Amino acid sequence: MAMRNTLIRLTIVVGLLMSIDSSLAMADGPLLPAHRIVGYYGNFYSAKMGVLGAHPPEEMLNMLDKELQKWAAADPQTKVLPAIEYIAVVAQNHPGEDGKYRSRMPDSEIEKAIALAKEVNGLVILDIQVGLSDLQTEIPRLASYFALPNVMVALDPEFSMPSDTLPGERIGSMDAADINYAINYMAEIVRTHHLPPKVLIVHRFTEHMVTNHEDIKPLPEVQVVMDMDGWGSQAKKLNTYREFIAPESVQFTGVKLFYKEDLKEPSTGLFTPEEILRFKPVPVFILYQ
């Protein structure tokens, strides 16, 4: 039975690989900085975790298209590439069967995200919240998806917890060694499958969420984006970007915008594309939650 299930899964993944638009499958160079990735974030099981679970698929894709058009108009010189960032490993407040305080999403949900991305000829970013597990355990389980040319990875240090702390009790962290493991793993996938370079996103909003940033080593096969993941007023977000993202960007930067949390007082609205384009350095990754 286990062998049969493995063969079925390989057949599905090969089918997904063959169905990906040729413009992505045949790309032979890095995506950044020639493109700006603009994506929607979330989990299909939860409306609270982001846009993906808060709206029906057609409505969500229409919303994403409107954001893409805004970015294309604001910066015509940079190609806009849509993305679906799906939380494939979700940190949780109960231990689960193995006591790791994280839940792995079923293949059917990951493939739903891949199918949605195909509708807009975009990327899929599989977000990993390890809880009390680790990247060495969680990333290899998704290897068949990372072998697809349009599937990237995001790391969420907020939910990477020490063994004596549960998700939600405090903000977690990842060290450069953890991030370098992910970089090297993805680079090996690129080399093995002869793929264009991957993009690896690290979500961050405090100093201690990423330790020893100077030791993070991007490779020709993997481009690293340090994403400003904090919510709040424009002044608060800009300050976070200047303090923890711009000076420790490693390679490229990104900004996450929250449709609800960013509008809480004293905010006067979300940053517009034109306003974000004045950030230094200019972000090449924009994510809406």
How would you summarize this macromolecular structure in one to three sentences?
It is built from ten helices and eleven strands. The chain is α/β, with parallel strands linked by helices. The chain has a single domain (33-288), classed as TIM Barrel (Alpha-Beta Barrel).
Q: Architecture in CATH?
A: Alpha-Beta Barrel
Question: What general outline do the C-alpha atoms trace?
Answer: globular
Number of distinct helices: 10
Helix-residue proportion: 25-40%
* DSSP, total strands: 11
Structure description:
With 289 residues, this protein is α/β, with parallel strands linked by helices. The protein has a single domain, classed as TIM Barrel, CATH 3.20.20. 34% of the residues lie in helices and 22% in strands. The protein has 10 helices and 11 strands. It has an 8-stranded parallel beta barrel with strand order 1-2-4-5-7-9-10-11, surrounded by 4 helices. Helix 9 links the parallel strand 9 and strand 10. 42% of the residues are buried.
Keyphrases for this structure?
single chain, 289 residues, alpha/beta, TIM Barrel, 8-stranded parallel beta barrel, two-stranded parallel sheet, 11 strands, globular
